[in-house]
Amino acid sequence: MIVVSSCLAGMKVRYNGTDSLNEKITELIENERAVAVCPELLGGFQTPREPAEIKGGNGYDVLEGKATVVDKNGINVTELYLAGAYKTLEIVRKLQANTVVLKENSPSCGSSQIYNGHFEGVKCNGAGVTTALLRREGIQVISELELAP
Ligand code: SF4
């Protein structure tokens, strides 16, 4: 089984109420080969919500308490991001999923790029909080950009 980001499956769960539909992902869902999860909703957020970015590091730094996730109003939302990451890990383990495909650039789901924490639309290298936790636990996470054609 494959676990995928809900927004890639066409669910309108992004902070601004949109999706990030990817046809390869919807095909996996239709063929019952994938299950969709949204770490941020699992963590307790609703849609729409304020955008958030990792401040002072990447997802691994958040796991170690060395960086925080803040929303655009400056509110510290780290706990909700961590809660969503751990709930996602639980689901991945329960399903014994061998691959996880998460949405690039997100502070939860980013694989190799995230935004730099200054809300200026600038990306930097790094993984999101959920991706970091899953990888730390030995689970393979790729982004939708790495899916085979
Ligand atoms: Fe949810 Fe991840 Fe998509 Fe953000 S990128 S909406 S956390 S599934």
Note down, in words, how this protein is organized:
It contains 5 helices and 8 strands. By secondary structure, it is of the alpha/beta class. The chain has one domain (2-146). The strands form 3 sheets. It has a 4-stranded parallel β-sheet with strand order 2-1-5-8, sandwiched between helices. Strand 1 (2-5), helix 1 and strand 2 (34-37) form a beta-alpha-beta unit. Helix 4 (78-95) crosses helix 5. The protein is globular and about 40 Å long. The structure holds iron/sulfur cluster. Iron/sulfur cluster binds at residues 5-7, 13-14, 38-40, 103, 106, 108-109.
Helix-strand category: alpha/beta
Say what oligomer this is.
Answer: single chain
The spatial strand order of the largest sheet comes to 2-1-5-8
Global morphology: globular
* Spatial extent as radius of gyration: 14 Å
The termini sit apart by 19 Å
Unreliable spans: none
**Strand proportion:** 15-25%
Average pLDDT rating: 97
Order of helices and strands: EHEHEHEHEEEHE
Organism: Niallia taxi
Protein name: DUF523 domain-containing protein
InterPro entries: 2-thiour_desulf
Which key terms come to mind for this protein?
single chain, 149 residues, alpha/beta, four-stranded parallel β-sheet, two-stranded antiparallel ribbon, 8 strands, 19% strand, globular, binds iron/sulfur cluster
Topology:
Layout: E1 2-5, H1 23-30, E2 34-37, H2 39-43, E3 52-55, H3 59-63, E4 68-71, H4 78-95, E5 99-102, E6 113-115, E7 123-125, H5 129-136, E8 141-143
The structure holds iron/sulfur cluster.
Quick structural gist:
The chain is an alpha/beta fold and about 150 residues long. It has one domain.
